[in-house]
Amino acid sequence: MAEEEGGTPVALHVYDLSGGLARALGPALLGKALGGVWHTGVAVFGEEYFFGDGICVARAGGTHHGTPQEVLPMGVTQVPRAVLLEWVEASRAEFSRSTYSLLHHNCNHFSDALLRFLVGGEVPAHIKDLPQEVLSTPLGALLGPALEGFERELRTAGSSPLAHPAAPLAAPPPPAPQASTPAPATPQAPDAKAEMQRLVREEFDRIMAAGDVEPNEAAQQALRAAAQRAQRALPPSGR
Questions:
Q1: Which of the following is catalytic: 13, 56, 104, 107?
Q2: Can you state the percent helix, strand and coil of the chain, rounding each to 5?
Q3: pLDDT digits (tens, 9 = 90+) for 161-193
Q4: Which pTM was predicted?
């Protein structure tokens, strides 16, 4: 990205991590259309800054996320590159592996903070507010607590949503045997939140075992796969 007279252009690179699946499956799974599962990076000085396994930098447009679906011009910055690098170093504690959260502190929150620093702009609301839009749906209300519990378990194990656990998380213990009674007890429906958390954890371990994607993308793929499994498990009247 060449410098212009009076400053350096800044652009927001937008990627759909679902590869179009969010748009296709959103109405069936969530009851509403979604444009994508958005990842963003900020391009300036020929480099692209983004938040994943901490603050990362790569050649603009040359990250492992592939070609941006959209490149949004965000204006021109007067901030020198040296000052930008100072800001990045000062922000590493705030945007670290251990602080990453898919719902509350993700790549789009980092891009938003960097854009405010460089040009006083911000990430478009439809990108930044996507987690809350998903959580506002019935299925999202189940996915949110499940994902938060999943992230807590990973951190308790000394990891994060961006690092594969040193050992697979233990499966829930089997229920204690029930004392015999004259008549069998009526089976109780499984707790929906616990079941969704189990599905997310199972899908995450499966995807990471394949070793083809980075952990943050694996976590997002696990969410989509768990949502599809939960939707298929519903009786026809509940879909």
A1: 107
A2: 45, 20, 40
A3: 443 332 333 344 455 555 544 444 444 445 555
A4: 0.62
